[in-house]
Specification:
With about 280 residues, this protein is α/β, with parallel strands linked by helices. The protein is built from 8 helices and 12 strands. Helix 2 links the parallel strand 3 and strand 4.
């Protein structure tokens, strides 16, 4: 069975792009999901899928994050990976769906978990905001803060992979240089600047809409926003991207991984000059 992928809110579960992609599971907040229910849910997922990868945002309330660690500790399971992501909510939802797509491929649980950091680099996540006065996750200068008070001001912000901020009409955001889709979410009608100007400038192949995640207003500091995430959608491209990276075994837990950190135990991969030679000892 494919490795189970989970998120921390139902609105981070995007529709599957094809009939073969399983949906992400959900571990809701402690005030919604009692501990016994969370434990039973995790136990069932492990019984069926063998391993579980949980994605959650850096902005997750402390009590909710602690609940995830409590579930893993009580179950005493080294088969649960808890991945804390800096991506904005919509970008995180995109990443979760990409992992769900890849879960049906022939990647081991360790490679799948560590692939989250690789794939995140190819998610261009941002938003159009009417104010940046409460935006604390992207560097904002005092001059820009002052302009937030001007009537009719709107700002385009890219939070990931490289922070950017421009006032709409006075600049453009640098986007991906590869074919991608653009997912857009808004509490009201999406910003025409996103669906028109940005989509054309980034030459996206398709513009799709999704409900605005509940985490988004808090993450961006305002409820008046249009969130967007440009991403790779083709499974064959995602597969090739992950498959092209060298695989190693974690020196701590033994899981297979790609990149510089194990997704399950978070142990870093030693720099090449610090690794033991093939004989196991230094001369």
């Amino acid at each position: 069975m494919p490795t189970a992928i989970a998120v921390t809110s139902p609105d981070l579960v995007l529709p599957a792009p094809d009939p073969h992609t399983p949906p992400a599971a959900v571990f809701s907040s402690p005030d919604v999901q009692p501990l016994d229910d969370a434990l039973a849910h995790a136990h069932r997922l492990l019984d069926v899928h063998g391993h579980l990868v949980v994605l959650y945002p850096e902005s997750l309330p402390a009590a909710h994050e602690q609940r995830l660690h409590t579930v893993r500790s009580i179950l005493e399971s080294d088969r649960i990976a808890l991945l804390r992501s800096p991506l904005p909510p919509l970008g995180l939802a995109v990443l979760a769906r990409q992992l769900c797509q890849l879960s049906v491929c022939d990647f081991s649980p360790g490679v799948l978990a560590s692939a989250a950091r690789l794939l995140a680099h190819y998610v261009h996540a941002g938003a159009v905001l009417n104010s940046v006065t409460r935006l604390d996750r992207v560097p904002v200068g005092l001059k820009t803060h002052a302009k937030s008070w001007l009537p009719g001001s709107h700002f385009a912000v890219l939070a990931h992979p490289v922070p950017q901020l421009v006032r709409i009409g006075a600049g453009d955001l640098e986007g991906p240089d590869y074919a991608c889709h653009l997912l857009v979410a808004s509490a009201a009608a999406p910003s025409e600047w996103v669906t028109g100007t940005l989509a054309a400038g980034w030459q996206v192949a398709a513009v799709l809409e999704a409900p605005l995640p509940g985490y988004s207003p808090g993450w961006w500091g305002t409820a008046k926003l249009t969130e967007f995430a440009a991403h790779l959608s083709d499974l064959s491209v995602l597969y090739q991207l992950v498959a092209s990276v060298r695989r190693e075994s974690c020196r701590w837990c033994g899981m297979e991984l790609i990149g510089d950190r194990c997704g399950f135990c978070a142990s870093p991969v030693p720099a090449p000059e610090l690794r033991l030679p093939s004989g196991g000892t230094y001369s």
